[in-house]
């Protein structure tokens, strides 16, 4: 089944699948077991409506922005996560199906899921007893899911393959145990360096309780880190136990550091360990990392964060990706940032307040000037439009009485001052301004006559200066006296 859109489908008692438009990564987990185990189910409607077509976060929009009290104010909407490139070809699985007590089929199911980013041609199980392994893995569910069409077997007396068995293998999921497993990581690195087809390796080191050889851990990591073309992940956990996947919250630490030492009494879900090691094989965020996963108490910060992610509708790949890329540290930083924000709000710096007030005042002044300029421009345009309309009407009226001797544009240009007077008068009338048409027209005419008189005197003066007193101004005065 292939879908071209991102969706989350959660139904009561069913599984959850995430379809990513970028690479189709999968989360196939028991919704009821995940949420009920962490005390997250509030009703059946929570599953069937809130998660069916995405996430309805309207109930989470609370006035409380404190992420420590309201974690949903910190968590963003779930989005598709990035997968590693080219998750195709053959994948080898070693270190599983080693005992008659269990099948270890879950790891193969994760690698085979058609909703996942994995599109492997073959899933090869490296086992000590091929006949036994086939009997354990060739189940009815394997037939229904199509696992049988991809499943292949190789036999080896050791938990590691030979160079020949790695031929054509692009991806490798390896399970190692205890202190002996730590030393085998360097052997894996040596094998990987001699296998040109190998591109991607994810190692689960279980029963790593109390391995406090930091130098040895760093050396093991470095042996893989020295292979620049290999995308590797190391997942270190405590003693494996058979409790449900996702039923316990976890914290993530850096393997090879003091904080990354697995506690002596630590346990970890077997199915969850398979989930984590396969997700790290597929997630881009899991590349070239060495991590320690430790189950934590329900009141731990990590538990709070994981519970919040699941309540927000995050699928397992999205959840693990978030914990790898952001995790508890980013959540803690958000809490501290909020506290600092509250402190600064309650204890404002006078100088900073003055600076901000000055910026606000300056911005208000700029906004006012901009508004005034825009208003003046609109007013000017409307008055000019009114003026041109009046001038056109006046030209038409006068042209009906005979030959005007000028074009409309010439008339408008010659009478533009009067037209602007009429345009301004109409503007004020239309916008409720005070007007007295008769009085204003008389004043306008008086001013225009004064301007004409001043223009005539100026022209006469210029002409006199040019002619050098040739004009007889006295005769004109005498004529005027007559």
- Taken as a percent bin, the fraction of beta residues is 5-15%
What does the overall shape look like?
elongated
Low-confidence stretches: 1-62, 475-482
Q: What is the CA–CA distance across the termini?
A: 114 Å
Could you state the CATH homologous superfamily of the largest domain? Answer: NAD(P)-binding Rossmann-like Domain
Let me know the average pLDDT: 85
**SSE ordering:** EEEHHEHEHHHEEHEHEEEEHEHHHHHHHH
Helix content: 40-55%
Task: Write the topology of this structure.
Elements: E1 7-9, E2 15-19, E3 29-30, H1 31-37, H2 44-50, E4 88-94, H3 105-112, E5 119-127, H4 130-137, H5 140-144, H6 147-150, E6 151-155, E7 169-177, H7 178-193, E8 200-206, H8 214-225, E9 231-236, E10 239-241, E11 250-254, E12 267-269, H9 270-282, E13 289-295, H10 301-311, H11 316-325, H12 327-346, H13 350-399, H14 408-414, H15 416-430, H16 437-467, H17 473-481
Parallel strand pairs: 4-5, 4-7, 5-6, 7-8, 8-9, 9-13, 10-12
Antiparallel strand pairs: 1-2, 2-3, 11-13
